[in-house]
Write a structure and sequence with these properties.
Length: 147
């Protein structure tokens, strides 16, 4: 559990915080302020909804945080089956270790700012792969082994 009340009160819960926590295997708790909501707090609420929807799609019980798989350091994985990687900045490109992942993976991107999803070309495992986000800003990469 990671909660803003014990970390920083009202000043740190945003999109990046929510996705980083989730990819580290943590649940989040956003301390609400009863005054008009600042934009960053709204982004945390939106990200919590995105995370919830992904948690219902993936086999969460089989996924574990493995920071060393991704250059971003934020990766939830069921090796060889599913990968969820968060890229928090405007980096555009990162490497993911798929050495132990045989097969071909469906590729889906989520723009964590807008909620837009973009399908990518399927990619083969078995090596280190470089991914380039199809948009700027925080991005989520979802790979799923194709049947």
């Amino acid at each position: 559990m990671d909660d803003t009340d014990h970390l920083c009160a009202y000043v740190c819960g945003d999109t990046n915080w929510v996705w980083k926590c989730f990819c580290h295997g943590l649940n989040v708790l956003l301390m609400e302020d009863l005054t008009p909501s600042p934009t960053w707090q709204d982004s945390a609420r939106v990200a919590m909804g995105q995370v919830r929807r992904f948690s219902e799609r993936v086999n969460l019980a089989q996924m574990v945080p493995i920071d060393g798989l991704s250059e971003t350091r934020y990766c939830l994985a069921s090796i060889g089956r599913e990968y969820l990687v968060f890229q928090g900045g405007n980096y555009g490109e990162f490497i993911l270790n798929l050495n132990d992942a045989a097969g071909t993976f469906a590729v889906e991107w989520l723009n964590a700012t807008t909620g837009e999803t973009v399908l990518g070309k399927p990619i083969k495992g078995g090596a280190f792969r470089t991914f380039s986000t199809p948009f700027g800003g925080p991005a989520v990469l979802y790979l799923k082994l194709m049947a």
